[in-house]
Design goal:
Chain A is built from 7 helices and 10 strands. Chain A is α+β, with helices and mostly antiparallel strands. The chains are: A alpha+beta, B alpha+beta.
């Protein structure tokens, strides 16, 4: 977060218990999208609310409150119905969004290079490949090249879908935006060679003492 | 989805290698792994149109010259007389049926049909079902084959909302619940639409007359069904991602062609029901907008050329989106098409400068608290929010992963107490943990509080200065006075009465709202300077550990730090930990007695005595080199 605030982003916070409207609708995630299913998303209070599946709704709330230009980052816990060596029902994300006039994909690439170089050093090799997220278009995933020569997915990003800007009362003919999101545990696993995500949450001092 | 390289390359004039095709597919955003001659594809959910040989070739056409060379039956076909009614046209706006009667069921397959099974290592079923499966692979359009001899009666498509028993063609019994789009015959479900057909009307090796159903189903009516009923289905995978609504005639004529190359067709008839016209979506040509979105500068000619190769039409200043690309609606969608063709890695990056902003106050306070606690030997933990019922105000999760943990926790201390006991069971003598988290409760609406909780027990620290001191309320009170002199914190002494442990150390806890901390905390100057530098992670070994103690006598008191630094920083692959376990200062004779415990553990195999002894001797030799340090009795 300190790295991103040094780039100019402002930290925004939001609730972990969210509505379908902010977690899905406002982000152009259709009613039929599989992520909304009970097997992917935790619902609470008889489906009245849900545990946020990403930190994007925080940015939606931020965009509704502030006019462009704006640059937000939101970090925190997110929840999905997974539980294995590489997925947990709770994990952490950091997402960023920058909305201004004439924000484009070339600038997004520059920002991503700066973030990855700061995290992994200037010698790291990375690549962009097309992907799909309902809230960005074009969308990309970014891989880094491991020491063993394997490409490893590190973050998702893209140009904010104009539908999302319009949902937040931002004129998409005048403004455009870029967005990115990364999983903290995934970054930590790649950076430090941790193979089982569950180690982060056992509170084992043998584990914790290695990261102090 | 597995696709054989040979099935693709036979249609590509340039005859590229599998590596060249792989690179092209990667640039286009189609992730895959290569296994011999097989491309194991993983498509993004918006690209259902690529789930076939022809679909992939449509995308590859932007780089290569494609010759599909797939023959179809072109003669006029009689209209099928069938007693069929569609009662849910909104779910199924287009459906076609083809009826075929053949002379003999062929014993062997030819050409591409045979290659499909051999190259992909698939099992054959029966003649008509095998063609149906192959055509789904070739064209992306699933079809379903009914044995026509079993299809007498009232044939309906409709959405039902009642519990129905249904046996799939693979013999799995399913109880349909809730809303389901189905085909019924004489009121019996014979097909869970878009997912799997039923056993009662399925084709067999003897089937000579078939009714082939070719439909378009709205994805919303199919999504979730295969997961709900635990049915693996290629058809539902495709229908969930949208199929081409305009392909029915071509697919069924291709079906006839393949049948005719294997046996004599005695009779055929076809009918197509179309309840809604598919109007091509159009987007005005605006290359400036595309250049603005990507940050490039391509000409309109180049832009139009790329889209034409991808199957888009051009009509009076508009881009006409082909029926199979239902994912394309806006200029941003088209910009992604162009960016894919250029290659994301080939788009130059342009310097970005975001105006500086200020961090929020609450995070600064939180971070100061973090640094303060880390500086004083605490470790930050993060616990799962899911617990058994802990309070009447706990929020219930409708669909928990574990029915024993179906509530959100209403305090942090309970989790920290579990963490403390976990570490005590691992012989940790100094345990100081904290957690910062939101806590939610239901009390006249959802209430959110951000809390700090800490728990501590055992020795203050494992260095020679803190080793003899025990953690208690006095220690923590005095510690926090350093940070905020004006506030008295309500530390709690937790009872061990109900805990399954023989350890007697006091357990001290604190749980407090973050907003109780004021800005005065911002004056704290952290000792550690984050981000911390840490070594390469050492996996925690499950192999047995053993320990050896070394007791030193230190007569030159100035050397105690040298001794401690040497031991606490000693590194070896089989040293798991070294810490002080005994410390005594005899001021009369100016001597310190200090004991270190060395924990040995390997990541690879159980250690032998000789391996332990070798490292132990090295430690002893190095420490005895320090002047004034002896080991009594040695």
């Amino acid at each position: 977060m300190e790295l991103l605030t040094s780039f100019g982003f402002e930290i925004v916070d939001g609730p972990e218990i969210e509505t379908e409207e902010f977690n899905f609708d406002m982000l152009n995630i259709k009613k039929s999208h599989p992520a909304r299913q009970m097997h992917d998303t935790f619902y609470v209070e008889n489906k009245l609310n849900l545990l946020r599946t990403h930190t994007s709704p925080v940015q939606i709330r931020g965009m509704l409150k502030k006019e462009p230009p704006l640059a937000f980052i939101s970090g925190g816990k997110v929840f999905r119905k997974d539980d294995d060596a590489t997925h947990l029902p709770m994990f952490h994300q950091v997402e960023g969004i920058y909305v201004d006039e004439d924000v484009n994909f070339s600038q997004l690439k520059d920002l991503i290079y700066k973030i990855i170089y700061s995290l992994f050093g200037n010698d790291i090799k990375l690549r962009f490949r097309p992907s799909y997220f309902p809230f960005t278009e074009p969308s990309a995933e970014v891989d880094i090249l491991s020491k063993e020569g394997n490409w490893l997915e590190i973050l998702g990003c893209g140009i904010v879908n104009p539908v999302v800007l319009n949902n937040c009362n931002i004129d998409s003919n005048k403004y455009s935006g870029l967005a990115f999101g990364l999983g903290i545990e995934r970054i930590a696993m790649l950076k430090h060679g941790v193979t089982d995500i569950r180690e982060f949450y056992k509170s084992n001092l043998d584990f914790l003492s290695q990261f102090k | 989805m597995k696709i054989a390289y040979s099935h693709l390359v036979q249609h590509i004039i340039q005859n590229p290698s599998i590596e060249e095709i792989s690179n092209s597919l990667f640039q286009l955003g189609h992730e895959h792994e290569i296994d011999g001659d097989i491309l194991d594809m993983e498509f993004t959910p918006n690209r259902g149109d690529c789930l076939s040989i022809n679909g992939l070739l449509r995308d590859l056409a932007v780089f290569y010259t494609i010759d599909l060379n797939q023959e179809v039956f072109t003669d006029k076909i009689n209209e099928l007389q069938i007693d069929f009614k569609n009662l849910s046209k909104n779910i199924c706006p287009k459906i076609s049926f083809l009826k075929l009667e053949i002379d003999q069921v062929p014993k062997t397959y030819k050409n591409s049909l045979e290659n499909y099974f051999i190259d992909l290592g698939l099992n054959k079923n029966n003649f008509f079902t095998d063609i149906s499966n192959y055509l789904s692979y070739e064209t992306g359009q699933p079809t379903h084959c009914y044995d026509a001899s079993k299809m007498d009666g009232k044939f309906l498509f409709h959405e039902i909302k009642k519990n129905e028993e249904f046996e799939t063609l693979l013999g799995k019994n399913v109880t349909l619940t809730g809303k389901n789009a189905v085909f019924t015959l004489n009121n019996e479900v014979i097909n869970l639409a878009g997912v799997v057909g039923g056993k009662s009307t399925s084709c067999s090796e003897d089937t000579k007359t078939v009714i082939v159903e070719c439909a378009f189903f709205q994805p919303e009516s199919i999504i979730g069904k295969s997961v709900k009923y635990d049915i693996q289905s290629d058809a539902s995978h495709k229908f969930e991602r949208t199929v081409d609504p305009e392909c029915h005639d071509k697919v069924l004529r291709r079906f006839i062609n393949i049948v005719s190359r294997h046996t004599t067709i005695k009779d055929m008839s076809i009918i197509s029901y179309k309840y809604k016209d598919n109007v091509a979506h159009q987007i005005p040509i605006n290359v400036e907008k595309i250049n603005q979105i990507i940050g490039i500068n391509i000409s309109e000619d180049r832009y139009v050329n790329y889209l034409t190769k991808l199957g888009f039409g051009i009509d009076e200043g508009h881009i006409k989106v082909p029926a199979f690309r239902s994912d394309i609606r806006t200029n941003n969608d088209l910009a992604e098409e162009i960016a894919r063709v250029i290659g994301y890695d080939n788009i130059p990056s342009k310097d970005i400068s975001i105006p500086k902003s200020h961090k929020t106050k609450s995070k600064d306070i939180e971070n100061k608290l973090r640094y303060f606690l880390l500086d004083h030997g605490f470790y930050e933990v993060i616990n799962s929010p899911f617990v058994g019922l802990s309070s009447d105000e706990a929020i219930k999760v409708d669909n928990p992963l574990d029915s024993n943990r179906k509530y959100l926790r209403t305090n942090l201390t309970d989790s920290l107490l579990d963490n403390l006991l976990f570490n005590e069971r691992r012989q940790k003598e100094s345990i100081k943990l904290f957690e910062i988290s939101d806590i939610y409760s239901s009390n006249d609406g959802i209430q959110k509080k951000r809390k700090l909780s800490l728990i501590a027990s055992g020795r203050v620290g494992l260095n020679y200065e803190d080793f003899s001191k025990k953690i208690n309320i006095k220690y923590l009170t005095s510690l926090f006075k350093q940070l905020i002199p004006e506030v008295v914190f309500d530390f709690q002494l937790l009872t061990r009465d109900l805990l399954d442990t023989k350890i007697k150390n006091e357990i001290i806890s604190l749980e407090i709202d973050i907003d109780k901390f004021s800005n005065s905390i911002l004056a704290y100057e952290e000792i550690s300077n984050p981000p911390y530098n840490f070594n390469e992670y050492r996996p925690i070994s499950d192999l047995p550990s053993s320990y050896k103690d070394i007791s030193y006598s230190v007569k030159d008191l100035s050397k105690i730090k040298d001794l401690q630094d040497l031991l606490l920083n000693y590194e070896n692959d089989i040293i798991k930990d070294i810490f002080i376990f005994d410390y005594f200062v005899n001021e009369k004779i100016e001597e310190i007695k200090i004991g270190f415990r060395c924990i040995f553990q390997s990541k690879i195999a159980t250690l032998t005595s000789a391996e332990i002894e070798a490292v132990y001797s090295d430690i002893v030799n190095q420490t005895l080199d320090i002047k004034g340090v002896t080991i009594p009795g040695m």
